[in-house]
Amino acid sequence: MTAFPAGTILGYPRIGRRRELKRAVEAHWSGALDEAGLESVAADLRRTTRARLAELGLGRDDSSIPETFSFYDQVLDVAAAVGALPERFAHLRAEDGSVPLSALFAAARGVGEAAPLEMTKWFDTNYHYLVPEIGPDTRFALSSDRFARQVAEAVAGGYVTRPVLVGPVTFLALAKGTDAAAPGARPLDRLDDLLPVYVELLAALRAAGAHWVQIDEPALVSQSLGYSDGELATAAARALEVLTASGDRPEILVAAGYGALSEPAWRALAASAAEGLAIDLTRGGVPSPVAGLDDKVIVAGVVDGRNVWRGDLAGAADVLDAVGGLGAAAVAVGTSTSLQHVPHDLADEPDLDPRLVSWLAFADQKVSQVTTLARGLADGRDAIAGELDAATAALADRSSAPGVRDGAVRARAGALTPADRSRTPFEVRAAAQDAVLGLPALPTTTIGSFPQTAEIRRARARATRGEIDQAIYEGFLRDEIARVIALQEDIGLDVLVHGEPERNDMVQYFAENLDGFAVTRNGWVQSYGSRATRPSILWGDVSRPAPITVPWAAYAQSLSDAPVKGMLTGPVTILAWSFVRDDQPLGETADQVALALRDEIADLERAGIAIVQVDEPALRELLPLRTADQPAYLDWSVGSFRLATAGAADETQIHTHLCYSEFGVVIDAIAALDADVTSIEAARSRGEVISEVAASGFAHGIGPGVYDIHSPRVPSVDEVSSLLERAVAELDVRRLWVNPDCGLKTRGYDETVASLRHIVAAARAVRAEVGAGV
Fold this sequence. Notes:
It is a single chain. The protein is an alpha/beta fold. The chain has two domains: about 5-400, TIM Barrel, CATH 3.20.20.210; about 430-770, Alpha-Beta Barrel (TIM Barrel). Helices cover about 40% and strands about 10% of the residues. The strands form six sheets. The chain has a seven-stranded parallel β-sheet. A five-stranded parallel β-sheet has the order 16-18-19-20-21.
């Protein structure tokens, strides 16, 4: 076995310290940067990443630096490499059958009448991947040399790096079956057809200079993909049997992050001929000793790749000692997952309080933690005693710092009763709301945000820098709100929104206005494709010092006789899209956020707002991967939403919004939220969720999305009408709403206005078909 380094990471942020890749990709899409220019930017980013990781202590020539670059998504990259793009994109292949970059982007974003691949969340994170479509006619063939070219590029630069692939079991387990004639057929059934292509790919990586390859198989920790533990373990055993049988390959490190391996999967991996296993030890204990480890290296994932807390290094060292007792040939220090889920570097955050900084670790600091612990493994714990003591002292300081615990917040939460989470029956509320609102059948609305133009971003930046005073900036925002209200009236929407021009992000905006949060300047994390967010840091007890959204909502409502929705982000999403304190149960933190939102809803009601939307797009994201852990999560997550909204009057219509997740898994929880209206993603999946909703007996208001806002395509009136007709056929038209899949912040105005006009036209046509008497 080729020696494995004493410390490594499973992946690193790939968008660039200042989102260089985002800007280059979007410039390419707009026609401002050709493909050669885009490739040049990408190569520079890869070179910079390798140099930075070597500077932080990972070896240049020992495979400790992973190659995890992607232009868009790691699952899409494998789909392109194995030729598994849908037939509707076949015309975009090169003459030799390979998949060029243009075809990859088309699959991600759609082109012409060809809809893009569906998007959903990556395990229980807020990163979203593109879902492969695998059917009986999918022809697997090696169709891209991009992985091998990146390895060769590294070798030319003086590095021996470790390429990272989504493994064949996870790739198929995450895929969507397309065999309408055989609904029981599953993508994982195609494993033996796919494995020869992986064998070819591994040979190409070895020829390019790779000594090790990392095969990511996080599906082996999950029970949420429709396959049993036993099925996944058997598939992994089969895959490794085939892959390791080839003599023309790098050595294989199988990485299974995002949770603890199931017992069958752990035994299958140990019994395989793979040379290394990387396991997540931050979300599960050290596994039991099993046969087969004596010829393997175990990469112990003791540094959390998903949060930003400095962590307990002494405790991590204890875990490493326990892993040493498993009888493996060697133990290495690693991260629990890729570091793509955290920002680059704390040194880029001059605005954060130094005391808070001492409690934190971003990607670069986590790399340093790995190298520190690796040195401790090699030289003994005394060699790193200073670093261990410093981390322990930071933990102690954090626990006693002002604001971490607030007596008034805790007293209010401690006095809650079940009545604080309950409203009157839905039927009573619906009648009261119908009388107040007087909306037509199939009412039209949007999810909340309107396009954030360059002008809006410039004005916000100037106000932040102090170049314009607050009065001028607020005047600009009022003008923007008035313009958006007038535009919606002209389009003919029934329920309006103010467009959210004052908000930089749907979570950060609230974090900036709630106690217990800090926000970053450069803490960008990839959400999907070219999109990145700056998760806020929830470090202390949460409270609302003053109303947040009320002035803007009230002003918008003063401009129109149509109802204008108040727009809030729900407690679960605020937690999911923030880096949350890890020193108390999530449910306790969620209730603190919910109480702040409850106060905001009360103030919106007093200001004359009749509809309040409390968005929970991340409800599904935090669902635990193991079935046994899900009921407790659903209990506190649903409870926190109900705590936020249950104080509303019967006449106040509470909306919520969920997007880009498999809803069937949580449909009962969605009903338990007891929102009056729920809008959900449906356009990209061509309305598949409608049948799930209908089968569940969901009786509240429902708005299946009819416009996929993650694609630049403008849906035709016929396309929207078709989705609406499907919804009308399966759902109660009296409770059916018409809306886009998600907010419009990332779209341009031309496509937005055209799409919304088509939505209104389709709604009116279908409304006429079903009759005005419904």
